[in-house]
Design a protein that fits this description.
mainly alpha, about 170 residues
Length: about 170
Amino acid sequence: MTEGDEKIKHPTQILSEDIFKFTQDIECLHTMLPLLMNIMVTVLKDTHDKFHRFIDENVIEKTEQGNEETYTIKVEDMAKHNRLKRQYDNSQTGVRLIPRHFITSLVSQYDSFLGCVIRFIFPVKPQILNASEKTIPYTELIQFPRIDAARDHIIEKEVDQSFAKVMQINFYG
């Protein structure tokens, strides 16, 4: 048993759990984006309709020059106009930004999963870490409470370097 009376997990069990979590997270993103986009498009249509209905009902004077439209409304209607315009603008921005955030989330999930896979490799094949010839200056080494913490620090550095190499290969051939 370890601290907190937790059982020590075998590395393959940890990897299996990481694979399950990764696939679950990716599937969730895959399922949720179309649903969220449907909602966002509905909200966009609703805010568009409310804003343009307000303009149609409250405009005093309207002029058009090419693609530009200018209109005049009463001062007392400005607050409502600005609120409806802000809601409409926010809806447009949301429809544009949400897919980008999902892509960022996918990349983040991949990054996290790749780190888990690389962390899995070192306990299973410790000779890879032993052959790395990494050094830690004494001043840095004494900062660690245990040798395990120093080893974990080296592993994290290796994970970061390995991930950087993989990403360079994936994106730059």
